[in-house]
Amino acid sequence: AVEIQNLRDRKRAKEHEIKDSTLPEIAIVGRSNVGKSTMLNTLTESPNTARVSSKPGLTRQLNFYRCGDKFAVVDMPGYGFAFAKEEDKVAWKELVCSAFCSSISQFGFWDRVNKKSLLIIIFFAHRLVQIEDYLGTRKSLRRIYVMIDARHGLKVADKEFLTMMGATCSKKFQVVLTKCDLVSPPDLARTYMVVQEELKKSFKNAMTDRILMVSSYTGAGMNTLRKDMLSACKQ
Ligand code: GTP
Ligand code: MG
Known about the structure:
By secondary structure, the protein is α/β, with parallel strands linked by helices.
């Protein structure tokens, strides 16, 4: 109970506090809009800790929250392209192809660049570098929690991200299915099995003994998640 009390006693850290922090850290990652920030709010039982929005892409930087003197939780921006419109995604892909082709031929790149697509590339590239840099170099990082929407299971963006993570970071990650209130128990059980199989097959750093399931709306699974985080920080 005391430890959960500490979890509630959270506070957003300042830049220098983050740099010098020696507290064990937990990172929360996942696609945009999967419910990371909402989960942090439910976890700490304080609805206004992290900002939440129905529009994907709200969290744009790494947000550190100290949970008492036990550990810190880092709310990450989402990866994936959930908020880019369909035509932007196509433009983005075309731009990558054209950049690749012109880097071989050495000319014609700027003529073909769609400026809006370029901005989107820079935005996502910067975000990924930030996340990758943190996950790859942070000494106090104890465990990474990867949030997956229980309605969708692992999507292409998740697999790409987990592959990137496997290459840059040797830390274990725990998958958490979110928004379980929106899925019927049989569908949830099916998604659980499929995700577990996919993790076992392709991602060696995944903790596959169990997958956690939560709903930030009903509070289901939150105590198990709290205990899991605390035990990760004690290791
Ligand atoms: P980014 O910051 O954009 O990466 O998104 P995020 O992963 O932090 O998602 P956020 O917490 O902002 O929530 C996105 C939307 O999902 C909001 O409209 C939430 O109300 C909704 N949501 C979050 N958790 C749950 C849940 O457990 N159940 C249901 N039904 N909706 C949820
Ligand atoms: Mg967020």
